[in-house]
Amino acid sequence: MDLELGGKVAVIGGGSRGIGSYIAHALGAEGCRVVLTARDAGQVKEAVSVLNAKGIEAAGVSVDVTDADSGERISQFARDSFGGFDIYVGNAGGNRRKSFADTTDQDWLDLLNLNLLSHLRVARSAVSEMRSGGGGAIVFISSVFGREAGGPGLSLYNTSKSAMISAAKIMAIELAGEGIRVNCVAPGSIRFPGGSWDRRCIEQPDAMAKFVEANIPLGRFGTAEEVANVVAFLSSPRASLVTGTCINVDGGQSRSLI
Ligand code: NAD
Predict the structure, then answer these.
(1) How many angstroms separate the CA atoms of 247 and 50, rounded?
(2) Over the range 175-214, which residues count as b (16 or more CB within 10 Å of their CB) and which as e?
(3) Atom of ligand 1 nearest to the CA of 95
(4) Is 94 in the pocket of ligand 1 (CB under 6 A)?
(5) Which of 12, 66, 85, 130 could lock 136 by a disulfide, CB 3.0 to 4.6 Å apart?
(6) Per-residue confidence of the chain (258 residues) as pLDDT tens digits?
(7) How far apart (Å, rounded) are the C-alpha atoms in residues 86 and 11?
(8) How far is the CA of 188 from the centre of ligand 1 (A)?
């Protein structure tokens, strides 16, 4: 299936490594011009040159997405590089494990800023950009733990990832009439070289084998390519009737009925 993404411009918030870099490659392989953002200028430069080496047109900007002016800076960079953008993928994110009673106001501000507000800032700029371009697609990378309880120690992560799904739903309703679709992807446990699951598999192979057997019906970790494929579909005109939803990419891991 041709995803009809040729010539579109896609901005990926947090795209220099991990799942974000696989999303950049998937969208680039479908013909998108790609704008990468990450904190480390050296990593951004290297990620852009890897894309370029594959014949993908790409540009990158070093931005900390938790900075208050990050949304405007990223949009301006996309305008300067490619004249605007049609797709925004909010991927940057992180976790801070702590029991709820030990969390501080600063923990909540930090995690909500990184996992939620950073993407809402870029999305706000994206909306005005997409309005003038006649439409677009926004995809936030949430988590299965945004859809169901992740367990003890995960109040910060769970809350920020569910809030992302909630915001996307309201954005989808408000923006539908303007041809802007907003969706989320909820990955389960995704293993890629250098990622946290990969580290755990190397350090504790037996425990991880048991974890997979007990938790993932498909019997293996997900790959970052499998997440990226779903993001590429949701970003594309082929998903023209899909908005306001969240798609699990988890091998059956999540237990929630909704
Ligand atoms: P990762 O740590 O490998 O990558 C995170 C990305 O975010 C990197 O590109 C990093 O540069 C960027 N980033 C982090 N903080 C930033 C900041 N302040 N400013 C700019 N960029 C910043 O993580 P990953 O596993 O690739 O996860 C990507 C997304 O997928 C995250 O939102 C994560 O919560 C989500 N997720 C991952 C898994 C998994 O199993 N790996 C599962 C569910 C959800």
Answers:
(1) 29
(2) beeeebbbbbbbbbbbbbeebebeeebeeeeeebeebbee
(3) 34
(4) yes
(5) 130
(6) 999 999 999 999 999 999 999 999 999 999 999 999 999 999 999 999 999 999 999 999 999 999 999 999 999 999 999 999 999 999 999 999 999 999 999 999 999 999 999 999 999 999 989 998 899 999 999 999 999 999 999 999 999 999 999 999 999 999 999 999 999 999 999 999 999 999 999 999 999 999 999 999 999 999 999 999 999 999 999 999 999 999 999 999 999 998
(7) 8
(8) 13
In a domain, 46, yes or no: yes
Q: Tell me the best of 12, 19, 189 to mutate to test the pocket of ligand 1, counting ligand atoms within 8 Å of each CB and taking the most.
A: 19
**Single pTM value for the model:** 0.98
Instruction: Indicate the number of domains in the chain.
Output: 1
Range of the domain at 78: 9-192+223-246
Domain presence at residue 236: yes
Known catalytic residue: 157?
A: yes
18 vs 39: CA distance, rounded Å? 14
- The DSSP call for residue 182 is E
14: left (phi > 0), else alpha (psi -120 to 50), else beta?
Answer: left
Look at residue 203 and tell me if it is in a domain.
Answer: no
**Which CATH number is 154's domain given?**
3.40.50.720
Tell me if 59 is assigned to some domain: yes
The preferred substitution site among 12, 51, 91, 254 for testing ligand 1, maximizing ligand atoms within 8 Å of CB, is 91
Q: For residue 65, which atom of ligand 1 is closest to its CA?
A: 19
- Locate 48 and state its tokens: 């852009």
